[in-house]
Specification:
The protein is an alpha/beta fold and 429 residues long. Strand 8, helix 13 and strand 9 form a beta-alpha-beta unit. Helix 4 runs parallel beside helix 5 and helix 6 packs across helix 7. The chain starts with a helix and ends with a helix.
Length: 429
């Protein structure tokens, strides 16, 4: 069967394109044309049903991703399910399962069953872990072990997957001779680097890229090309390794498009504030407008415990410059596995950043939300303000924390509220 990209290139409009157009308030023909060019993607596995259709890319609202998943030290599947439900409640657009502890197949399938949004994974984690369980060392995994896991994820209905295909044996060899402050911060990238060094072989994803694309095309799943050599510290931002990998990725994007496979590119990472706009522009130029999926970016390394706020600062700039999907960070980043409450905090921060960026990127279309809440605020219409808030319960709870009613001013200004004073003045006049 043809992929969505191939259908778009044939000039036909599908139900998915119509649904994206309705959500984004544009014409189906615009969506079709952008999918055909590769600058918009619609992640959905052919075998998955009842999934919310989400468009990501050029001219569309900035989307937000939430990561969940077990660790090697904390395996609580019920908690991960709660995280998924929390993410759905507060409006995530996509979810990724990054589990590395417990029954990985069982966990993935349980989370998939309750997540009605595009769902992503990182198959190299499981390939490495499965072989480790059998032989005590994941570096013994074969190429077949790796691609068998990819196929298993696709058969389960995974809509998009992070594949670190741009890191090569040559880049890893050069990196061994270079002192990089934060090394390789990507878990998947580190696994592949260790495998390449031990086995003295090329990255299986790079070496067998055409075969990988055939697998993805069969299920019409999206490849999210991972940034294995992203900067893990602002001191490493835009160094030789980050940019060399991005050049490799640009060629991989072209090859995916040639096969009719939808693709997005993953980005940094830790990037100083003054380099974020340039980072987005570089990706968009080199990768010919392919959707950009950014982690953060984090403009400082010192915000532990508040990395969700630091990431939101970077994400707002990235979104305004054209980043298409924001991967949230939680207050637990660099510290611990997050709790459901921390997942909520991270998601809300990322959604605020995405919307702030959209005000720049989309203009009046995005500002309509702000206009409505400002109008309600000027009229002291608290119920409408709650409804328009990203976190209705929190807004209401804070408003009422010192006994304020649903009518009249809040307890910050009381009788000196500007809207109360103005209303009183106009009545007396």
């Amino acid at each position: 069967m043809p992929t969505l990209m191939e259908i778009a290139r044939s000039g036909n409009i599908t139900d998915e394109m119509i649904r994206v157009a309705k959500i984004e308030d544009c014409s189906p023909e615009k969506i079709r044309e952008r999918i055909a060019r590769g600058v918009v993607i619609v992640p959905r596995n052919e075998i998955r049903e009842n999934i919310r259709i989400v468009g990501i890319g050029e001219g569309l609202s900035t989307k937000v991703n939430v990561n969940v998943g077990t660790s090697t030290m904390v395996v609580n599947v019920e908690m991960e399910e709660e995280k998924v439900k929390t993410a759905l409640k507060y409006g995530t657009d996509t979810i990724m399962d990054l589990s590395i502890g417990g029954d990985l197949d069982g966990i993935r399938r349980r989370l998939l069953s309750i997540a009605n949004v595009p769902f992503g994974t990182v198959p190299i984690y499981q390939a490495f872990i499965d072989v480790t369980k059998k032989s005590s060392a994941g570096i013994y995994m074969t190429e077949d072990d790796i691609f068998n896991v990819v196929e298993r994820h696709l058969k389960d209905g995974v809509d998009f997957m992070t594949i670190h295909a741009g890191i090569t044996k040559e880049l890893v060899a050069k990196m061994r001779k270079t002192k990089r402050l934060a090394g390789i911060p990507s878990r998947g990238g580190t696994i592949l680097a260790a495998w390449m060094l031990y086995n003295d072989q090329e990255n299986p994803f790079f070496k067998n890229y055409d075969y990988l694309l055939e697998m993805l095309a069969e299920y019409d799943a999206v490849i999210s090309i991972g940034d294995a050599l992203r900067p893990g510290a602002i001191a490493d931002s835009h160094d030789y390794f980050q940019l060399s990998e991005l050049l490799n990725v640009a060629e991989l994007v072209r090859r995916a498009w040639d096969k009719g496979v939808q693709v997005m590119v993953e980005g940094p990472g830790h990037v100083p504030l003054n380099e974020i706009a340039a980072d987005v522009r570089i990706e968009k130029a080199i990768c010919r407008g392919a959707p950009y999926y950014v982690l953060g970016p984090l403009p400082t390394d010192v915000a532990m415990g508040y990395d969700h706020i630091a990431a939101a600062i970077g994400a707002a700039i990235a979104a305004a410059e054209g980043a298409d999907l924001i991967c949230y960070l939680t207050p637990a980043e660099h510290l611990a596995l997050p709790t459901p409450e921390q997942v909520k905090d991270g998601l809300i921060a990322a959604k605020i950043a995405a919307h702030a960026g959209d005000i720049v990127k989309l203009g009046a279309k995005a500002k309509e939300w702000d206009f409505r809440i400002s109008k309600a605020r000027a009229g002291l219409d608290w119920s409408t303000m709650y409804e328009l808030s990203m976190d209705k319960e929190r807004a209401k709870k804070i408003h009422e924390q010192f006994g304020a009613s649903s009518k009249g001013p809040c307890t910050m200004c009381g009788d000196l509220c500007v809207y109360v004073l103005l209303s009183k003045f106009l009545k007396e006049d």
